[in-house]
Amino acid sequence: MLLKGERTFVVRDAGGFVAHINMPGWLKPKPTDHGQGPLAMVVESILDPGHQIAMHEHRNDEIISWVPDGVMRHDDRAAGRLVIDRDHLMVMNAGVSFWHSEETLASDPPLRMLQILVRPYAVDLEPKIQHGPMPAAAANVWRHLVGPEGEGAPFYVRSAIDFFDMRLDAGLRVEFPQKQGRDLYFYVFSGSVVVDKQTFVEGEQGLHLSDDKLEVEAQSASTLVAFLLDPNASITRQGTVGDHKKIPPAIIIRAFLRWRKFRHIWRRHLSHRRSKTEKAI
C-alpha cells in the first residue's frame, strides 16, 4: 500500500529559520504514532544567511544533516567547527547528551536542507559525531549514505534504517531501493515524480507499507531521498526533538485528519453548487 502525504501543515517559523516538519506516521489513515518505526520525523529546514541557532542540547536522537543547497556551519564541544554542504554529510549520534550550534554567514547562500530524526535502539548511548565527504553521486542511481551501525554504509545510525538520495533526470524511471521486511518512505526535495500512478511534487512524501518493488518516474529533473526502515525494530521514544513532548498525540491527529477530509468534501460540494447556480443564471 502506497500512502501519499501532501506538503506538511506543521511549520515552525522563528524568523530567519523556518522548519517544515514531516511526520511519516501521520500518512496512515488511522495514525497511532507520529513516526514510522525508527524514523521519527523528516524536517526541511530553511536558514537565511547571517542567522545562528544558539548552542543547545540533544539527547537520544540520531540526526542526519543532508544539505543539497547552501552551507550549514556546525559547532560543537567535541569536534569543533564543521561545514556541511552538497559534498559533505553529518550524522550526530546524540546519545546521552550532545551540545551544538548551527549558523550561516551573511556571505553564505540561502540554506535549504533536511534534518532527519532517527530513534535509536537504546537510550543514553555514547555520544558521537560523524562528518565527512559523501561518495560521488552517479546520475540517476540511488546513493546509499547511511545504514545501521556495522553494516558497511559510509555513515551509520544506531537503528534499523537505511538512507539514500538521488537526482533523477526528467523522463527517466528507476526502482526504489528494496530490502526484505522493510517499509519505504520517500520525500521529494525538488521536482515532480510519478509513483504508482500518483504525482508527487516538491515537499510531498510517500509511505509504502511493503517491501514489494516500486518504481519512480521523473516528470521534471528531481531530487529525492528514500528510507528503508524496519517497522518492527526495537526503538526508544525519548529523543528531545524526534519525540518531543509537545507533539500532539495520535488521537488528536486522527480527529484533525477527519475534520480536514470533511472540510475538503464540504468545500467541493459548495463549489459544485455555486457552479450549478451560475449556469442556471
TrEMBL record:
Residues 145-227 form the Quercetin 2,3-dioxygenase C-terminal cupin domain. InterPro entries: Pirin, Pirin_N_dom, Quercetinase_C, RmlC-like_jellyroll, RmlC_Cupin_sf. Residues 46-116 form the Pirin N-terminal domain. Keywords: Iron, Metal-binding. It holds the Pfam family Pirin_C_2. Binds 1 Fe cation per subunit. Gene3D superfamilies: Jelly Rolls (2.60.120.10). GO terms for molecular function: metal ion binding. Fe cation binds at H56, H58, H100, E102. Its cofactor is Fe cation. Belongs to the pirin family. PANTHER family: QUERCETIN 2,3-DIOXYGENASE (PTHR43212:SF3). This is Pirin family protein. It comes from Rhizobium laguerreae.
